[in-house]
Amino acid sequence: MPNQAIPDLMATRAAILGAVGKNANMLIALGALLLVLGVIGTLGQVVYSYISIGIIGAFAIFAGVLQAIHAMQSTGWKSVSIQWVFALFYLIAGLMAWFFPIPALEGLTIWLAVTFFATGALRLIQAFQHQPFSQWFWLLLSSVMSIVLGFLIMKGWPSSSLWVPGLLMAIEFMLQGWALIFIGVAAKSTQP
Fold first, then answer.
1. Is the pTM of this model over 0.85?
2. Which of 68, 81, 87, 119 is most buried by a 10 A CB count?
3. Cα distance between residue 161 and residue 166, in whole Å
Protein backbone atom coordinates (compact mmCIF):
# COMPACT_ATOMS: atom_id res chain seq x y z
CA MET A 1 0.00 0.00 0.00
CA PRO A 2 2.73 2.56 0.80
CA ASN A 3 4.31 1.87 -2.61
CA GLN A 4 1.05 2.93 -4.32
CA ALA A 5 0.57 6.07 -2.16
CA ILE A 6 3.63 7.87 -3.51
CA PRO A 7 2.69 7.60 -7.22
CA ASP A 8 -0.88 8.65 -6.33
CA LEU A 9 0.46 11.67 -4.46
CA MET A 10 2.74 12.58 -7.37
CA ALA A 11 -0.16 12.24 -9.83
CA THR A 12 -2.35 14.45 -7.64
CA ARG A 13 0.38 17.08 -7.39
CA ALA A 14 0.94 17.00 -11.15
CA ALA A 15 -2.82 17.36 -11.77
CA ILE A 16 -3.02 20.36 -9.44
CA LEU A 17 0.04 22.13 -10.82
CA GLY A 18 -0.56 21.31 -14.49
CA ALA A 19 2.01 22.82 -16.86
CA VAL A 20 3.53 24.99 -14.12
CA GLY A 21 6.18 22.32 -13.59
CA LYS A 22 7.64 23.04 -17.03
CA ASN A 23 8.17 26.68 -16.02
CA ALA A 24 9.08 26.08 -12.38
CA ASN A 25 12.43 27.87 -12.61
CA MET A 26 10.72 30.99 -13.99
CA LEU A 27 8.23 30.88 -11.12
CA ILE A 28 11.04 30.51 -8.58
CA ALA A 29 12.93 33.41 -10.19
CA LEU A 30 9.82 35.61 -10.11
CA GLY A 31 9.28 34.68 -6.47
CA ALA A 32 12.90 35.54 -5.65
CA LEU A 33 12.56 38.90 -7.43
CA LEU A 34 9.40 39.76 -5.48
CA LEU A 35 11.09 38.65 -2.27
CA VAL A 36 14.06 40.95 -2.95
CA LEU A 37 11.72 43.83 -3.85
CA GLY A 38 9.84 43.22 -0.61
CA VAL A 39 13.02 43.29 1.46
CA ILE A 40 14.10 46.50 -0.28
CA GLY A 41 10.64 47.92 0.43
CA THR A 42 10.92 47.22 4.14
CA LEU A 43 14.09 49.31 4.13
CA GLY A 44 12.58 52.09 2.00
CA GLN A 45 8.96 52.25 3.14
CA VAL A 46 8.56 55.96 2.38
CA VAL A 47 9.81 55.48 -1.19
CA TYR A 48 7.42 52.56 -1.65
CA SER A 49 4.56 54.66 -0.28
CA TYR A 50 5.26 57.37 -2.85
CA ILE A 51 5.55 54.75 -5.59
CA SER A 52 2.24 53.16 -4.59
CA ILE A 53 0.36 56.47 -4.57
CA GLY A 54 1.99 57.34 -7.91
CA ILE A 55 0.80 54.08 -9.43
CA ILE A 56 -2.71 54.61 -8.06
CA GLY A 57 -2.67 58.11 -9.54
CA ALA A 58 -1.50 56.79 -12.92
CA PHE A 59 -4.30 54.20 -12.98
CA ALA A 60 -6.86 56.88 -12.10
CA ILE A 61 -5.60 59.16 -14.88
CA PHE A 62 -5.65 56.26 -17.36
CA ALA A 63 -9.21 55.39 -16.30
CA GLY A 64 -10.23 59.04 -16.69
CA VAL A 65 -8.77 59.22 -20.19
CA LEU A 66 -10.60 56.02 -21.18
CA GLN A 67 -13.86 57.36 -19.72
CA ALA A 68 -13.39 60.62 -21.67
CA ILE A 69 -12.72 58.73 -24.91
CA HIS A 70 -15.83 56.65 -24.31
CA ALA A 71 -17.87 59.79 -23.60
CA MET A 72 -16.67 61.41 -26.84
CA GLN A 73 -17.70 58.32 -28.82
CA SER A 74 -21.12 58.05 -27.16
CA THR A 75 -22.97 61.07 -28.51
CA GLY A 76 -26.71 60.72 -28.21
CA TRP A 77 -26.51 58.50 -25.15
CA LYS A 78 -28.60 59.87 -22.30
CA SER A 79 -25.85 59.09 -19.75
CA VAL A 80 -22.99 60.70 -21.65
CA SER A 81 -22.86 63.58 -19.18
CA ILE A 82 -22.42 61.08 -16.35
CA GLN A 83 -19.53 59.53 -18.31
CA TRP A 84 -17.90 62.98 -18.46
CA VAL A 85 -18.34 63.39 -14.70
CA PHE A 86 -16.67 60.02 -14.14
CA ALA A 87 -13.85 61.00 -16.49
CA LEU A 88 -13.28 64.29 -14.67
CA PHE A 89 -13.47 62.61 -11.28
CA TYR A 90 -10.83 60.04 -12.20
CA LEU A 91 -8.59 62.62 -13.86
CA ILE A 92 -8.79 64.98 -10.89
CA ALA A 93 -8.21 62.15 -8.39
CA GLY A 94 -5.18 60.92 -10.35
CA LEU A 95 -3.69 64.39 -10.71
CA MET A 96 -4.29 65.10 -7.00
CA ALA A 97 -2.44 61.89 -6.12
CA TRP A 98 0.48 62.95 -8.31
CA PHE A 99 0.70 66.60 -7.32
CA PHE A 100 -0.33 66.22 -3.67
CA PRO A 101 0.99 62.80 -2.66
CA ILE A 102 1.07 63.37 1.10
CA PRO A 103 -2.65 64.18 1.47
CA ALA A 104 -3.38 61.27 -0.90
CA LEU A 105 -1.27 58.97 1.29
CA GLU A 106 -3.11 60.24 4.37
CA GLY A 107 -6.44 59.37 2.79
CA LEU A 108 -5.14 55.97 1.68
CA THR A 109 -3.84 55.28 5.20
CA ILE A 110 -7.21 56.11 6.78
CA TRP A 111 -8.86 53.79 4.24
CA LEU A 112 -6.40 51.02 5.16
CA ALA A 113 -7.05 51.50 8.89
CA VAL A 114 -10.83 51.38 8.36
CA THR A 115 -10.38 48.27 6.22
CA PHE A 116 -8.40 46.57 8.99
CA PHE A 117 -11.08 47.51 11.55
CA ALA A 118 -13.92 46.31 9.30
CA THR A 119 -12.33 43.02 8.26
CA GLY A 120 -11.28 42.40 11.86
CA ALA A 121 -14.81 43.00 13.13
CA LEU A 122 -16.29 40.72 10.46
CA ARG A 123 -13.80 37.95 11.24
CA LEU A 124 -14.60 38.37 14.95
CA ILE A 125 -18.27 37.67 14.21
CA GLN A 126 -17.21 34.78 11.99
CA ALA A 127 -14.98 33.37 14.75
CA PHE A 128 -17.85 33.22 17.22
CA GLN A 129 -20.07 31.65 14.57
CA HIS A 130 -17.46 28.91 14.11
CA GLN A 131 -16.82 28.38 17.81
CA PRO A 132 -17.86 24.69 17.70
CA PHE A 133 -14.85 24.00 15.46
CA SER A 134 -11.40 23.70 16.98
CA GLN A 135 -9.95 26.13 14.41
CA TRP A 136 -12.16 29.01 15.52
CA PHE A 137 -9.29 30.35 17.63
CA TRP A 138 -7.32 31.20 14.47
CA LEU A 139 -10.19 33.32 13.18
CA LEU A 140 -10.36 35.03 16.56
CA LEU A 141 -6.60 35.68 16.58
CA SER A 142 -6.72 36.97 13.00
CA SER A 143 -9.57 39.33 13.84
CA VAL A 144 -7.83 40.69 16.93
CA MET A 145 -4.63 41.25 14.95
CA SER A 146 -6.52 43.16 12.23
CA ILE A 147 -8.27 45.36 14.78
CA VAL A 148 -4.99 46.06 16.60
CA LEU A 149 -3.28 46.91 13.28
CA GLY A 150 -6.10 49.31 12.44
CA PHE A 151 -5.77 50.91 15.86
CA LEU A 152 -1.97 51.24 15.57
CA ILE A 153 -2.23 52.78 12.11
CA MET A 154 -4.80 55.32 13.33
CA LYS A 155 -2.79 56.04 16.50
CA GLY A 156 0.18 57.08 14.39
CA TRP A 157 -1.84 58.95 11.79
CA PRO A 158 -1.01 61.24 9.93
CA SER A 159 2.73 60.49 10.24
CA SER A 160 2.06 56.78 9.66
CA SER A 161 0.83 57.76 6.19
CA LEU A 162 4.40 58.07 5.00
CA TRP A 163 5.38 54.48 5.79
CA VAL A 164 2.28 52.29 6.24
CA PRO A 165 1.29 51.93 2.54
CA GLY A 166 4.89 51.20 1.55
CA LEU A 167 5.40 48.70 4.35
CA LEU A 168 2.18 46.86 3.49
CA MET A 169 3.18 46.76 -0.18
CA ALA A 170 6.64 45.41 0.79
CA ILE A 171 5.10 42.74 3.02
CA GLU A 172 2.74 41.73 0.21
CA PHE A 173 5.70 41.40 -2.17
CA MET A 174 7.55 39.21 0.34
CA LEU A 175 4.52 36.99 0.98
CA GLN A 176 3.83 36.62 -2.74
CA GLY A 177 7.52 35.95 -3.39
CA TRP A 178 7.67 33.15 -0.82
CA ALA A 179 4.42 31.69 -2.13
CA LEU A 180 5.72 31.63 -5.72
CA ILE A 181 9.02 30.07 -4.62
CA PHE A 182 7.20 27.32 -2.71
CA ILE A 183 4.83 26.67 -5.62
CA GLY A 184 7.79 26.60 -8.02
CA VAL A 185 9.70 24.12 -5.85
CA ALA A 186 6.58 21.95 -5.55
CA ALA A 187 6.05 22.13 -9.31
CA LYS A 188 9.68 21.24 -9.96
CA SER A 189 9.32 18.12 -7.83
CA THR A 190 6.60 16.81 -10.18
CA GLN A 191 8.93 16.85 -13.18
CA PRO A 192 11.00 13.75 -14.02
1. no
2. 87
3. 9
